What we know:
- A 6-stranded mixed β-sheet has the order 8-7-6-10-9-17. Strands 13-12-11-14-15-16 form a 6-stranded parallel β-sheet, with helices on both faces.
- Helices cover 28% and strands 24% of the residues.
- It is an alpha/beta fold.
Amino acid sequence: MKEISEILKAYSEAKKAGKKASLATVVKVEGSSYRQPGARMLVAEDGLLTGAISGGCLEGDALRKALLSINQQQNKLVTYNTSNEDDAEVGLQLGCNGIVHILFEYINDEEENNPIQLLQQLELERKEAVIVTVFSLKRNAFQIGTTLFFRKDSPILNHSNEALNLISDVKKVLKNKTSIVKKLQEENDNEALIEFIKPSISLVIAGAGNDIQPLVKMAAVLGWKISIGEGRATHATAKRFPKASQVSVVKAEQFLDNITIDDQTYFVLMTHNYKYDLAVLKSLLETNCHYIGILGPKSKFSRMLDDLSLEGITVNEEQLSRIHSPVGLDIGAETSEEIALSIISEIKAVASARTGTSLKYKSGKIHDEVHYGE
């Protein structure tokens, strides 16, 4: 979501300056590629790039293609064969062993439900959504582009009949939480990237000490929404945490009063105040949040369990599976910056349903593959 948010901000600034723009989207990948389907980059007519469609190797040529799309005011599909280092046509020598198909869409702000308007819907609510982009690999074919936005219990935004015919597939993607590329049963050989998009991570931190500052800075770089709360008015200030969207001086018993919990909400307890952390943990056990990280040694958590037991509260196996104590991945962290990196890494691993082990020992591809169906 960070990339999309930055693209929306960049487009807003370009529009204010009277500059036209084109949206580049990776719609299909064959083999290996640095970025997967759904990666986006906005290109303004002055050459300003926001987002990324590769590790930097395609952007130069993509800039030229995007400017052509702007000048001609039409969508274009460009294919890059990165598996051939001697490809004289592209001359990029990428060595990524894949074929990347990128759709360039001219943004017509007067067109209802244009790609930017559809992407803007993602920021209106913190809910999962699906966006459909229809394209064709056929040479000189008309490119429909980003055409449909779907969110449960919300109106369908759309501007093509082809996409409306995919509603059953769209609902499956939302249910399965996995993007797919599907061939459409039409004479024009259209395909559709049916993309599942979830909200950015919401990181809620109990604590406002100095060791929270690097954690907030790292989370902000990733585009996470950050909320901070604790009892010390001298520490919980917006001035100390300018990247946080919410900083509150709050008693432990009221910690959750102004917090909305969804599937992308992650809690970290690190006030260095045992009683405060224990009270917040007690409140969190009554919620459905799926990640609670607690700073400190295992002996601290064992003590917490004992104290909860004395209050007649038994933490069951399901609740224990959601608690991460000590919090973070085992990377030998000692300084506050290293501990922040450890915590951020564990949350990202949990959010991606990964174990956080070294890629050296991973069998198969690095990225989850987008399913290609008929």
